[in-house]
Design a protein that fits this description.
4-stranded antiparallel β-sheet, about 425 residues, alpha/beta, binds pyridoxal-5'-phosphate, Aspartate Aminotransferase, domain 1
Length: about 425
């Protein structure tokens, strides 16, 4: 049972640790039960105890470390470098490139937009806009907001990928940065990145591939022989890529990497300050002091799994996704949106209110995302969902036959 929230004040005297952990556990009983594999975003568990143990140990071993100063914590600095370089090699980054570890996809994107804005300003640019397909993650809108830029969105095609003609029309000389998703969060599709990046390159506009979801899926799908449209640094116009370790890299939260084709673009996001009596201050991202745990966890899980471990997990994930997709497509009245090639499915209904279907699923303890235009349900599938496919499809089928009388939910709080 969760404890009602009251205005908290520091207890006059300390409380026993057992008491605290009991209360923490009590409070957690009100959280989503992600361990039961009924939640389809926010956490991406493999369902493997050996991996969870490695993550817990890595977090624990450096719990008091501070990644702010790699001269004082060279162990953290070296693990951070390893993670950035291992990620760069998965993205086919050239030797002229470089990257930075960040706290998550949003920070990777904000730093990428900052780098592009600095470049734009160095050329004498004033104002500036960030142009994205409407399916781009809100982190681009947030980056534009934080950095004093205009955010312009462009429509999608019928297959939910960027409409290249409309997108191209929005590019102007004051475009600071543009992008494509691999995969897009709402529909799980990959934008026509090769085409878009070629156009951006001709216009000398930085092009960001948002591979926060796909960065640790697409390279391994390709290794399994799946045909993948161009998305990484092998596409000439792609200048920067975000890839999240705390999603399909299977690390614990607080782990992403932003990588640049050209190291000078990386330098543009680094902040240095020399006038402080406290000494020289230099940070590559938004934070000052930084937890060491996400770096150690990412380093540990990447090395524990290795390439073969990720390929096996992605193979398993692909099989699970295909079972979900086939089951959803077989339910009369449901339609999968676009042609997803990864672990993300979005679907809608022809004749019933899909949000009313979602409400029944909510009542049965499932947690799916809600999407719009068209209204639909969205699932980010993780390896541990392998054990719930049949239960989910039974509940979904019953929910379509007997949806809630009126839908009470439409705008879900998505990631
Ligand atoms: C495609 C995409 N980009 C960026 C982000 C932002 O990542 P984070 O929530 O780690 O900041 C997400 C989050 O789901 C995403 O799906």
């Amino acid at each position: 049972m969760s404890t009602p929230r009251t205005s908290a004040s520091l207890p006059p005297t300390g409380r026993p640790a057992d008491d605290l952990f009991r209360e923490m556990s009590d409070r957690q009983s009100g959280d989503i039960n992600w361990r039961a594999a009924r939640t389809f975003s926010l956490v991406y568990p493999t369902g493997r105890d050996d991996i969870d143990d490695v993550l817990a140990r890595a977090n624990h071993d450096v719990v008091f470390g501070n990644a702010l100063n790699p001269l004082r914590f060279p162990s953290i600095g070296s693990m951070e470098r390893d993670v950035v370089e291992m990620t760069g090699s998965l993205l086919s980054a050239p030797s002229t490139g470089g990257g930075v570890f960040t706290s998550g996809g949003t920070e990777s994107i904000v730093m990428s937009v900052l780098s592009a804005r600095e470049k734009f300003r160095a050329r004498g640019g004033v104002g500036g806009r960030v142009v994205t397909p409407i399916s781009a993650h809100p982190a681009f809108a947030k980056a534009a907001h934080l950095l004093g830029l205009e955010h312009v969105t462009t429509p999608l095609d019928d297959d939910f990928r960027a409409n290249v003609d409309a997108w191209q029309q929005a590019l102007r000389d004051d475009t600071v940065l543009t992008m494509g998703s691999a995969y897009s969060y709402p529909h799980g599709v990959v934008d026509p990145i090769a085409n878009m990046a070629a156009i951006a390159r001709e216009r000398e506009i930085p092009f960001h591939t948002d591979a926060c979801i796909g960065g640790f899926v697409l390279p391994f799908l390709e290794e399994l022989g799946v045909e993948i449209p161009g998305w990484d640094f092998r596409v000439p116009g792609v200048t920067q890529i975000s890839a999240d370790l705390h999603k399909y890299g299977y690390s614990t939260k607080g782990a992403s990497v932003v990588t640049y084709r050209d190291r000078s673009d990386l330098r543009a996001q680094i902040f240095s300050y020399h006038d402080w009596p406290g000494g020289m201050y230099r940070t590559p991202g938004v934070a000052g002091a930084r937890a060491a745990s996400p770096i150690a966890a990412a380093w540990a899980v990447m090395n524990y799994l290795g390439r073969a471990g990720y390929v096996a997990l992605v193979d398993d994930l692909r099989a699970t996704t295909q079972r979900f997709a086939a089951g959803i497509a077989a339910i009369e009245g449901l339609r999968i949106l676009g042609a997803p090639i990864g672990p993300l499915l979005a679907f809608t209904a022809n004749d019933v209110d899909i949000n009313a279907v979602g409400d029944v699923l909510d009542d049965r303890g499932w947690g799916l995302g809600r999407i719009h235009a068209p209204e639909g349900l969205q699932m980010m599938i993780a390896p541990h969902h392998r054990s719930v496919v049949d239960d989910f499809l039974t509940d979904l089928s019953e929910a379509v036959e007997n949806p809630a009388p009126t839908s009470r939910t439409s705008r879900g709080y998505n990631t």
